[in-house]
């Protein structure tokens, strides 16, 4: 009995030792976009795991469960929502890049390849992290995401003619410069507002599932994320293999704006030109088609 127990203990110890020293083939580090968090990646992570691919999702500062909320957010006080200074006003692009770098450093020694994936406005912090430590990233993937290689600020592309579309009355609440954040109201009860949020970010998500997705958003995006310039160099960021995943019916970042970023990045830093894949549908495939998104990610060379 004791001998059997000792044998089993030794076997478990050997297995644990193997698990400890054997690196993971590939680790995906997933960075969310504006008002989102690590939670929005869960369905994609589940689909990646089903393909034998490991992943972690990052919460940028000011996002996720710890995100501070304006005092009027849950009570519906629109006056407060329109004027109250955001607690995130002091957050910088450096703070956000540091969160990505911390995740990259944590996984680097445990995986043969690390793939950094950024969605939408998350492309700024992800790009800056990759610029600072290109040795931590084997491939960087932009999912309908800001690429600062051609123009340094997210707003440079968001406000470009290629991204012009009738967005109705808009989703922004108050003056971003005064608030220190771009503020939205994901839990609005105004049907016009809900419809516009649906059309812009979650166009392919069925209406009966929209409330689940929008209620997981937080209202404040630190103004530094879209407005701070990100400087990249050919020797560092430009040396990393890169992929762009286009979203063909995207209403938040129009396909023409996505193509503009790809073209200008390749012109500015031609050493590792983008490989490009096109996904059907809206700006948020992690919500509308996570299995398809995971299949494309898992198929990338690494």
UniProtKB/TrEMBL annotation:
InterPro entries membership:
AB_hydrolase_1, AB_hydrolase_fold, Sec-Metab_Biosynth_Hydrolase
Where does the AB hydrolase-1 domain lie? 28-296
> What Gene3D superfamilies would the database entry show?
alpha/beta hydrolase
Protein name as catalogued: Hydrolase or acyltransferase of alpha/beta superfamily
Domain of life here? Bacteria
Lineage, uppermost ranks: Bacteria, Bacillati, Actinomycetota, Actinomycetes, Pseudonocardiales
Species annotation: Actinoalloteichus fjordicus
Keywords, alphabetical: Acyltransferase, Hydrolase, Transferase
Q: Name one GO molecular function term.
A: acyltransferase activity
Give the Pfam families listed for this entry. Answer: Abhydrolase_6
């Amino acid at each position: 009995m004791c001998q059997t127990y000792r044998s089993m203990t030794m076997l478990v110890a050997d297995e644990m030792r193997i698990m400890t020293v054997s690196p993971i083939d590939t680790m995906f580090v997933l960075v969310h976009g504006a008002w989102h968090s690590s939670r929005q990646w869960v369905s994609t992570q589940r689909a990646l795991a089903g393909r034998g691919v490991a992943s972690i999702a990052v919460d940028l500062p000011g996002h996720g469960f710890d995100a501070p909320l304006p005092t009027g957010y849950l009570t519906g006080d629109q006056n407060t929502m329109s004027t109250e200074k955001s607690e995130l006003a002091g957050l910088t692009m450096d703070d956000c890049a540091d969160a990505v770098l911390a995740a990259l450093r944590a996984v680097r020694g445990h995986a043969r390849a690390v793939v950094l994936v950024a969605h939408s406005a998350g492309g700024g912090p992800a790009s800056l992290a990759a610029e600072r430590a290109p040795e931590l990233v084997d491939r960087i993937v932009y999912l309908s995401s800001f690429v600062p290689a051609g123009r340094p600020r997210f707003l440079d592309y968001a406000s470009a003619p290629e991204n012009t579309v009738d967005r109705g009355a808009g989703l922004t609440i108050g003056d971003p410069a005064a608030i220190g954040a771009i503020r939205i109201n994901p839990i609005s009860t105004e049907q016009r507002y809900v419809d516009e949020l649906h059309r812009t970010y979650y166009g392919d998500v069925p209406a009966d599932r929209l409330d689940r997705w929008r209620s997981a958003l937080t209202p404040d995006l630190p103004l530094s994320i879209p407005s701070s310039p990100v400087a990249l160099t050919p020797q560092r960021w430009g040396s990393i293999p890169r992929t762009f995943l286009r979203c063909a019916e995207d209403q938040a970042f129009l396909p023409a704006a996505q193509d503009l970023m790809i073209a200008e990045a390749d012109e500015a830093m031609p050493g590792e030109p983008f490989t490009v894949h096109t996904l059907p549908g809206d700006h948020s495939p992690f919500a509308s088609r996570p299995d398809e998104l995971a299949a494309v990610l898992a198929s990338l060379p690494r």
